[in-house]
Design goal:
Peptidase_M42_aminopept, 8-stranded mixed β-sheet, aminopeptidase activity, Elongation Factor Tu (Ef-tu), domain 3, Peptidase_M42
């Protein structure tokens, strides 16, 4: 039997840590209304464990936050790691006289929504700005198989976004009026109602909105562990961003204001190996349970990626390589979109069923990402004989393919 001490990523996630992850993911934070997660869950958590010398930046146009380990120290090399708190949501589109509330489906496939319980949030019509929640509704489209077209019964024809509505079980007279009197109106957000649970398979879990409460949880856990033995030479900007799902607008605004030297997006990725119908597309074989992912291509820095890889190899932390073409699809693009210079990359956790009510992940991948980043930040802190990574290191670290060793 091996006497090797297991790393945290080789063990099951402890209950207390899983419960905090569940709390982060459960926060009702649809796009544009992210404060439930950023202010309600994560800001109090940061305030409990961060040193008094740190500071929290807040913003006028979004509910994002940045926990700054060395406020005002613009002389230090800065690393920003970003998770996004916003969840894709449904929106009220129109209320009909029979009580149907027609909705927009945003980035959901309509066929994945039917029958699921949701929560609708609306303002008190007598007190604008004061929100109320309404549970007990489900998303529907056809009503019953008896009302469907033959092609829909065979599966040859699917559901269209304009067919989807929220069923609040209204009946009797004045259904529309009674709904409007509740304060429900066009644009009100609706989110899926399924907090995460541990799965049947070992160390798996499933539920709604792993995208991207997981990225925010990872950012918070990195901050918590590093706060116990703070970095001396690196200024870390732990960032919870907004509006990622509609264009990375929150991260772009935040990064554009603080202009970090290094920027790392922390987001979910795909388990391509288990994705149905993808074999013919020959996708990169990312697999749930085999470690976190590091993205190559797009605007990512090869030098930064090599630092992450070396740190993980030294600690035996499992990782997988992913690649992107023009766009990482994550907040790693924030510096490029904001138009300033930063070494950037994207890390992720392969999940299944993205943008559904049953997103599925593996705690080992999440833990590997946390400890992979901790190892990376400590390696950066110890570079240059304990003086830390410098901006010149980033400028002069670009790989030179003209000096590549020939194998022929």
């Amino acid at each position: 039997m091996s006497n090797k001490i297991k790393g945290a990523w080789e063990k099951s996630m402890p209950k207390l840590q899983f419960d905090f992850m569940r709390k982060v993911l459960a926060a009702p934070s649809p796009i544009g209304l992210e404060a439930a997660m950023s202010y309600g869950v994560l800001k109090p958590a940061f305030e409990k464990f961060m040193p008094k010398s740190s500071a929290i930046h807040q913003f006028k146009g979004n509910a994002g936050i940045v926990v700054d380990t060395h406020p005002g120290r613009d002389d230090m090399t800065s690393v920003m790691i970003i998770g996004h708190a916003d969840k894709i949501r449904l929106q009220v589109r129109k209320i009909d006289s029979d009580g149907k509330i027609w909705i927009n489906t945003d980035s959901f496939l309509p066929c994945t929504l039917v029958g699921h319980e949701v929560t609708l949030f609306c303002q008190n019509p007598k007190n604008p700005g004061n929100y109320r929640s309404i549970d007990g509704g489900t998303i529907e489209a056809l009503g019953a198989i008896h009302f469907s077209e033959p092609a829909q019964r065979t599966g040859e024809k699917g559901l269209k976004p304009e067919m989807m509505y929220l069923e609040l079980q209204m009946h009797g007279k004045d259904c529309k009026k009674r709904i409007e009197e509740l304060g429900i109106r066009a644009g009100d957000p609706i989110i899926l109602n399924r907090p995460i649970k541990r799965g049947f398979s070992e160390d798996s879990f499933y539920g709604a909105y792993l995208d991207n409460g997981l990225g925010c949880f990872v950012v918070a856990e990195i901050a918590k562990l590093l706060a116990k033995s703070p970095l001396k030479n690196i200024r870390v900007l732990y960032t919870i961003a907004t509006h990622e799902e509609i264009g990375r607008f929150g991260a772009t605004a935040i990064a554009g204001e603080l202009k970090p030297d290094i920027l790392i997006g922390s987001d979910v990725n795909h388990d391509y190996d288990a994705a149905p119908g993808m074999s013919a597309k020959r996708m990169n074989p990312l697999t749930m349970g085999k470690g976190f992912s590091i993205t190559k291509g797009s605007i990512t820095s090869e030098h930064l990626n090599s630092i992450i890889e070396e740190a993980c190899m030294a600690e035996g932390i499992p990782y997988q390589m992913d690649f992107s073409g023009r766009d990482t699809g994550t907040d790693a693009m924030a510096a490029a979109l904001a138009g300033f210079d930063a070494a950037a990359t994207s890390i992720g956790f392969p999940i299944r069923n993205m943008h559904t009510i049953s997103e599925t992940g593996h705690t080992a991948d999440v833990l590997a990402a946390i400890h992979g980043m901790i190892a990376t930040f400590r390696a950066m802190d110890e570079m240059n004989r304990g003086k830390g990574i410098t901006r010149d290191d980033l400028k002069n670290g670009h790989p030179r393919l003209d000096t590549a060793t020939s194998l022929t």
